[in-house]
Amino acid sequence: MSFSNIPSITTSRLSENYGSKNFNEMLKKSKEIISTLPKREPHHPIFECYQYDGFWYHLASLESALCMQQNFKAQPCDIFVCSAPKSGTTWLKALTFSIITRHDDDITNNLLFTKVPHECIPFLEVDFLSNPKIIDMELPLLATHLPYSILPKSISSNNCKIIYICREPKDTFVSLWHFIHNIEAKSLKVPLLTFDQAFKWFCQGKSMYGSYWDHMLEYWKASIERPERVFFIKYEDLKEDTLGYVKKLADFMDKPFSKEEQERGVPQEIVARCNFKNLSNLEVNKSGKYTTAITKEISNNLFFRKGEIGDWKNYLTEEMAKYIDDITLQKFQSSGLTFP
Fold first, then answer.
1. How far is CA 146 from the centre of its chain?
2. pTM of the full predicted structure?
3. What span, in angstroms and rounded, lies between the C-alpha atoms of 215 and 146?
4. Of residues 193, 175, 176, 197, the one with CA closest to residue 184
5. Are 67 and 126 in contact (CB under 8 A)?
6. Residues 6+ away with beta carbon under 8 Å from 246
7. 209: how many CB neighbours lie within 10 A of its CB?
8. Cα atoms in the Cβ-side hemisphere of radius 13 Å centred on 312
């Protein structure tokens, strides 16, 4: 697929230091900084986490994030798809990718038929150190789970646009638990994380990229301060009015649907192409695998479990649900951010 109708990346997103002796010194320094940080306990063999500036990160993600501060050069046309894990990322990637590339392929040649959405839009902190060629590709779409406060400074200085999706905390936790549990189950040598321990970490703000509530609040406040640059979406709202939000996203991304496209039903085609049933039934998402520097190899089907609203009712006790609701109420008071 070519991206002939998309503003091209005219210069590298990587600084002249990338790969140099200076860069290697920065990487070494970041490792030294991380070695002094608090570690999450009890130890988890796959998802070892460190606390930095109020949030918890996987080792590889934090190393990458620290190095990116001086060595990632966002371009003014770049758009960043941001989220905490398991809050609607896969779906939002599919939608934004389809919107921005709709002039460059027909429905029979769409990359979403052969690649999981995470391969179509790379994760910034995952691929910056391990696969810089992907980061430097010409498509002006990149994704990240990083909190707003640790994003590379070049994103703000170049007025890049940000699309952020979040999800009701109880559903987010249940989805995250299943994702981690299923990854662990693929490795017979790894003891499974208990549901109670995962719940405790989530509520304490010690889930990856957590606290989840603080993660949401940072982007929420940024969307209020800079609404022309930060588009904030709730998963539940996107489910309720997918077509309406696809049109809003296209406008925000400076790729509005023309009158002719709307008459031809292009927005509806994108909604149908990216719905949960369609994506989860694609062969690539049933049998394919996604390789990352963090978790090595993940079966694509793990990114497509249910996608339902209110699934938490099948897993949380009333006491657990109230505990999360109380945290949500306390964290969001006076912010204007609410969940039903």
1. 8
2. 0.91
3. 8
4. 193
5. no
6. 95, 99, 267, 270, 271
7. 22
8. 21
Q: Which residues pair with 289 in a beta bridge?
A: 299
pLDDT tens for the chain, 340 residues long, are: 445 455 555 578 988 888 788 888 888 999 999 999 999 988 777 778 999 999 999 988 999 999 998 899 999 999 999 999 999 999 999 999 999 998 765 555 678 888 888 888 999 998 888 888 888 888 899 999 999 999 999 999 999 999 999 999 999 999 999 888 777 766 656 667 889 999 999 999 999 999 999 999 999 999 999 999 999 999 999 999 999 999 999 999 999 999 999 999 999 999 999 998 888 878 877 777 777 655 567 776 667 778 889 999 999 999 999 999 999 999 999 999 998 7
Q: How far is the C-alpha of 201 from the C-alpha of 40, rounded, in Å?
A: 9
Contacts of 187 (CB under 8 A, 6+ apart): 46
Which amino acid is present at 290? Y
Q: Among positive and negative, which fits the CA dihedral 243, 170, 116, 68?
A: positive
Rounded to whole angstroms, the Cα distance separating 100 from 3 reads: 9
One-letter amino acid for residue 122 of the chain: P
> How many Å apart are CA 272 and CA 242, to the nearest integer?
10
Going by the DSSP 8-state scheme, the letter that residue 141 receives in this structure is: E
Is the separation of the CB atoms in 138 and 307 below 8 Å?
no
- The DSSP element (H or E) to which 68 belongs, if any, is helix 59-71
**156 vs 160: CA distance, rounded Å:** 6
161 — phi, psi (to 5°)? -85, 145
Candidate list 145, 178, 181, 215, residue with the active-site label: 145
User: Which pLDDT score, from 0 to 100, does residue 189 have?
Assistant: 62
CA–CA dist 138, 78 (Å, integer): 10
Contact predicate 239/247, CB 8 Å? no
* Cα–Cα distance, 101 to 244 (Å, whole number): 19
Our measurement of the distance from residue 17's CA atom to the centroid of its chain's CA atoms, rounded to an integer in Å, reads: 27
DSSP secondary structure letter of residue 312: G
* pLDDT for res 207: 93
Query: Is residue 145 annotated as a catalytic residue, yes or no?
Result: yes
Contact (Cβ atoms closer than 8 angstroms) between residue 247 and residue 257: yes
